[in-house]
Amino acid sequence: GAVVSQHPSWVICKSGTSVKIECRSLDFQATTMFWYRQFPKQSLMLMATSNEGSKATYEQGVEKDKFLINHASLTLSTLTVTSAHPEDSSFYICSASRALEVYEQYFGPGTRLTVT
Amino acid sequence: AQTVTQSQPEMSVQEAETVTLSCTYDTSESDYYLFWYKQPPSRQMILVIRQEAYKQQNATENRFSVNFQKAAKSFSLKISDSQLGDAAMYFCASGADGLTFGKGTHLIIQP
Fold first, then answer.
1. B100: which chain A residues are within 8 Å (Cβ-Cβ)?
2. Which residue in B111, B110, B92 sits closest to B21, CA to CA?
3. A52-75 pLDDT, tens per residue?
4. Which secondary-structure segment (H or E) carries A43?
5. Among A35, A103, B27, B72, which residue has the least CB neighbours within 10 Å?
6. Higher per-residue confidence, B84 vs A101
7. CA distances from residue B3 to A9, A115, B95 in whole angstroms, order as listed
8. Is A56 within 8 Å of A7 (Cβ atoms)?
C-alpha cells in the first residue's frame, strides 16, 4: 500500500507556456502533499506544502504565482508551472502523507520538465 | 530554519563490507524526525530508515542501522554486508513535515 503516482513522467514544453503536473495517492487519503524540486545531481528542495482544501504554504524564495499548487481532493494535488522558462527545467517530485502521520511521506516517481 | 550536511560526496565499499555514511543537522524544532533515503538511477525516493528524535534507541532495519547522537546533532547510517543493489545516492533528511535534505552521498559498491 501507500502508492503515489505522478503524471506525466516527462514533459517537454515551449518557453512561455504552462504545464500541469499531477500527483495522486492511489490507495490512501493524503491530507498533506509536498512538492520538491531536484536539479541534476543535486538535492531535493522543498517548494511547498499543501493541505487538502487549503491554500498551499510556499517556502521562502518560491514564487507562488509561478508555481500554482492545488490540493482539491484527498487523492490529488496539482502543480502548474505558469509561463515556463528554461530555468524551470528540473525534476519535480511530490510526496503525500496521511493525517496524523505527516512525518511518513510516500514519494511519487517524479516528473522531468524540460522547457525549450 | 533547518540545515542538513552530508560531508561525503562519494563513498566506495567492497561488496560484503560495512560502510558508514555521515550526516549532521541543525534544527530549531523540538519535535522532529530524521531519515535516510535511497535514490537509485530511477530517481524514485526509497525510505531506508527513520528515527524519531525523542527516542534514544537507535533505529535498525535489517542491514541498515543508525548512530543517532542528539547532543552532537549527528545521524550516521551504517550499511552492513553491502550488496550491489545498495549502490545509489543516499540522502539524509530532517523535519517534522516538509523535509530538509542534505546534498547526498553517492555510494559505490565494488564487486
1. 46
2. B92
3. 888 999 999 999 999 999 998 999
4. none
5. B72
6. B84
7. 30, 30, 10
8. no
